[in-house]
């Protein structure tokens, strides 16, 4: 423990030490609580109470039925009170921006489960309660799936309608989007299926014409004005009601799942505002997606629904199992990819993922996908966002351009992460961060003004990706499909490679400009104070690059089919190259470069498109993309944002290869003052309160005496404060001179002394300890795999110091030549 004074540790930099428990049999943790539900709507700590004083009950006596608890008369001395005979509200909970103690939370749950199992044999009612407890997890998954699916369907429908609102309005009913408005019209043609008398552009409504420069300018102005209105509403609502509703949410979800507490991040206000502002932000035309934020929305649903079940409300570790499943639900409803969602949660966001969480994630993702399919937000009776139907199998030699797309995706991912983090750091340290509303409005204005003239940037990003993935048929009206069809027979289902028409070359120029624009504007957009996902913009960048390469390959094959690379498999008049497939592979490569996903990415992509036979090209591109991006920088965009925000996240993928020992990292160092400790029976209430006032530490080791330094246990600062305050209120005579005992049995006190206070019940009797010569790579592994908050260091049984999670993160940062003071929380 660094004991150099509180001036070195600002308020948000407090050292946070808590209980750890290795043995579950001697902790005496009870599972009853008096914390109100209102205090726990946000991510608050689970309430931990103690209904027994004897942490090591003598053999032959029933657990927790000790006879020396409660108020006692000892040789005429005032009554000795064991404070924790009854649950004390707040004892064992966690403060905001603290890390939970996984070992303690798991031990609590095991004790609770053991108690329920033993009682279930006593009566039928207890058996019913045991069955309902076992079933509650599945019921909770059902509710999360239903709620998340319904919200996602509402977000999809609303965003589609508001995106079209920027271009015009439906006269049949303003609540119809463009597509639905023209569905029932008898005056649409197949070539111009978007034009019908019921849909009016703003120019047609305001100045009465759709042609000419005035109509174009009027539509342009209305497009920009609607975009600015939507983004202004989004950023204002976030700023006023739920600051945590901005951004993607995935970096924070990863941190929360690793055991960190951010109160309010998954609360009801965040859910409400994120749902509304996500629709507004997507509709404004900004270069962002709704897929990442939908993971945050699903986790908010899960956290709120957890409060219906005591098992999850009172245990932070159990709640994080539910949040892992909710992350899978988020991806399931975002892409219509339930299996990909489960793999995403496992590969990308979860810290602790037991087998039962895998099954429950699968069930919840299934329910969510079914709910979304019932709502049918895309209006095509399909669950997938970008359904494709390619008629041509891919050839082995095409792996070369697929791998090139993988290299492009890796380079783009590495560039994007560096540029975005540099911009976000600039936002934090300059005037930009003080004017979030102005920043959003300026970026929206630039996006709308530049996007409108180009039809590929004016349309919503999802529609753009859908068009890029599409395989051209004879009746397609897209510019990308304007080939020379002179030699094509109408009856043919498989179209041969054809020479590109003038419109295709125009479209390629427009797509090239759109690619540059998307690459640059996404860097600035991600991280602004509005909900912003990264999946769709990354897919769009890759899809544009892939489609351009695909058209290039197609024309090469048409004009040079006698080249070595085409000879033997691409004869004249054959359908050899599918540009839409290249767009799909490019999209996967770019998303992989930014997020470093591999298995889950490939599964999401084939679920997203239905292109099951194209798994090998997707795998080749995803793997190449990861290798290239990892060669430039190891971090994904989410890990980079976690580090930027200073969250205490111990990355499981990083290797720790340096030869340092626990004594090199522990506190106090040689030049520091000695360790602040409590003695088991030699301190008064006043001494303990002085120690709490003079230090900023969040926990104290308990030793036999200052001379022996033999370790007895560990006590949380928060529990000490709550317990002493509670004792002063509940027992007369507790004053500063009252002695505090952490021993099992209390010696008789002189008749004139004030009543003592027994606090053994709040002490962790089995704190995790290692010796001073333990290698740091082993210590880091222990912290990762057990989810510890702190570890005590001993030498020949004597207490030497302490290592916290924050000390380890600072040590890792120093080794990597990063600023160790960038770790803000513990």
Automatic annotation (TrEMBL):
Residue ranges crossing the lipid bilayer per the database entry: 135-155, 220-245, 266-288, 294-310, 322-346, 396-417, 437-456, 507-528, 534-553
Gene Ontology cellular component annotations, sorted alphabetically: early endosome; endosome membrane; Golgi apparatus; plasma membrane; synaptic vesicle
Protein name per UniProt: Chloride channel protein
Organism, as annotated: Esox lucius (Northern pike)
Gene Ontology terms for molecular function: antiporter activity; ATP binding; voltage-gated chloride channel activity
Gene3D superfamilies, per the entry: 3.10.580.20, 3.90.1280.20, Clc chloride channel
Topology in the lipid bilayer: Multi-pass membrane protein
Subcellular location: Endosome membrane; Membrane
Origin organism lineage: Eukaryota, Metazoa, Chordata, Craniata, Vertebrata
Domain of life: Eukaryota
CBS domain span: 666-730, 763-820
């Amino acid at each position: 423990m660094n004991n150099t004074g509180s001036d070195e540790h600002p308020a948000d930099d407090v050292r946070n030490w808590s209980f750890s428990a290795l043995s579950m049999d001697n902790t005496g943790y009870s599972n009853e609580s008096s914390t109100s539900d209102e205090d726990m709507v946000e991510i608050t700590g689970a309430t931990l109470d103690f209904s027994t004083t004897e942490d090591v009950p003598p053999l032959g006596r029933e657990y927790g039925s000790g006879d020396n608890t409660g108020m006692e008369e000892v040789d005429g001395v005032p009554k000795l009170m064991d404070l924790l005979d009854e649950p004390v509200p707040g004892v064992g909970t966690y403060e905001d921006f603290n890390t939970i103690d996984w070992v303690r939370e798991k031990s609590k749950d095991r004790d609770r489960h053991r108690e329920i199992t033993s009682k279930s044999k006593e009566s039928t009612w207890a058996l019913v309660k045991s069955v309902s407890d076992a079933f509650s997890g599945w019921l909770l998954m059902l509710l999360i799936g239903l709620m998340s699916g319904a919200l996602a369907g509402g977000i999809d429908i609303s965003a589609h309608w508001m995106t079209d609102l920027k271009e015009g309005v439906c006269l049949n009913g303003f609540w119809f989007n463009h597509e639905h408005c023209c569905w029932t019209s008898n005056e649409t043609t197949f070539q111009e299926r978007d034009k019908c008398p019921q849909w009016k552009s703003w120019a047609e409504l305001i100045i009465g014409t759709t042609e000419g420069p005035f109509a174009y300018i009027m539509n342009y102005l209305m497009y920009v004005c609607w975009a600015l209105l939507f983004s202004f509403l989004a950023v204002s609502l976030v700023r006023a009601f739920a600051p945590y509703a901005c951004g993607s949410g995935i970096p924070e979800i990863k941190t929360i799942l690793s055991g960190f507490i951010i109160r309010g991040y998954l609360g009801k206000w965040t859910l409400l505002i994120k749902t509304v502002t996500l629709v507004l932000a997507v509709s404004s035309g900004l270069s962002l997606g709704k897929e990442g934020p939908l993971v945050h929305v699903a986790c908010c649903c899960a956290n709120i629904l957890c409060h219906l079940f005591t098992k999850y409300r009172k245990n932070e570790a159990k709640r994080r199992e539910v949040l892992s499943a909710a992350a899978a639900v988020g991806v399931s409803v975002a892409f219509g990819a339930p299996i990909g969602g489960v793999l995403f949660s496992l590969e990308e966001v979860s810290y602790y993922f037991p087998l039962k969480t895998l099954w429950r994630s699968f069930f919840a993702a299934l329910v969510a996908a079914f709910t979304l399919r019932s709502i049918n937000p895309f209006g095509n009776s399909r669950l997938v966002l970008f359904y494709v139907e390619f008629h041509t199998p891919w050839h082995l030699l095409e792996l070369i351009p697929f791998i090139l797309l993988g290299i492009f995706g890796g380079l783009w991912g590495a560039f994007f992460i560096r540029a975005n983090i540099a911009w976000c750091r600039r936002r934090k340290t300059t005037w930009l961060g003080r004017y979030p509303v102005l920043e959003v409005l300026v970026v929206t204005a630039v996006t709308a003004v530049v996007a409108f003239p180009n039809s590929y940037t004016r349309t919503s990003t999802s529609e753009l990706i859908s068009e890029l993935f599409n395989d051209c048929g004879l009746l397609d009206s897209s510019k990308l499909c304007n080939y020379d069809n002179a030699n094509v027979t109408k009856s043919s289902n498989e179209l041969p490679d054809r020479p590109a028409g003038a419109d295709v070359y125009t479209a390629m120029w427009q797509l090239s400009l759109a690619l540059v624009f998307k690459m640059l504007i996404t860097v600035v957009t991600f991280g602004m104070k509005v909900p912003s996902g990264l999946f769709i913009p990354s897919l769009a960048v890759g899809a544009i690059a892939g489609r351009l390469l695909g058209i290039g390959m197609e024309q090469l094959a048409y004009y040079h089919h006698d080249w070595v690379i085409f000879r033997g498999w691409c004869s004249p008049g054959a359908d050899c190259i599918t540009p839409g497939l290249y767009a799909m592979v490019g999209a996967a490569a770019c998303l992989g470069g930014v997020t470093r996903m591999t298995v889950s990415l490939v599964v999401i992509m084939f679920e997203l498109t239905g292109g099951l036979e194209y798994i090998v090209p997707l795998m080749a591109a995803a793997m190449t993309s990861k290798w290239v991006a990892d060669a430039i920088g190891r971090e994904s965009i989410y890990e980079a944002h976690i580090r930027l925000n200073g969250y205490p996240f111990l990355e499981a993928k990083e290797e720790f290869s340096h030869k340092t020992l626990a004594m090199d990292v522990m506190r106090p160092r040689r030049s520091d003052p000695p360790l602040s400790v409590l003695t088991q029976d030699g301190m008064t209430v006043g001494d303990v309160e002085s120690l709490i006032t003079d230090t900023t530490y969040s926990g104290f080791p308990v030793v036999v005496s200052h001379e022996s330094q033999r370790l007895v246990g560990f006590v949380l600062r928060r529990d000490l404060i709550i317990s002493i305050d509670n004792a002063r209120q509940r027992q007369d005579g507790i004053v500063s001179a009252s002695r505090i005992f952490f021993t099992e049995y209390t010696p008789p006190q002189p008749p004139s002394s004030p009543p003592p206070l027994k606090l053994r019940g709040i002490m962790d009797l089995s704190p995790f300890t290692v010796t001073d010569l333990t290698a740091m790579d082993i210590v880091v592994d222990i912290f990762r795999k057990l989810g510890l908050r702190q570890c005590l260091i001993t030498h020949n049984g004597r207490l030497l110091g302490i290592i916290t999670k924050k000390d380890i993160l600072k040590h890792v940062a120093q080794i990597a030549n990063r600023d160790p003071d960038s770790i803000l929380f513990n």
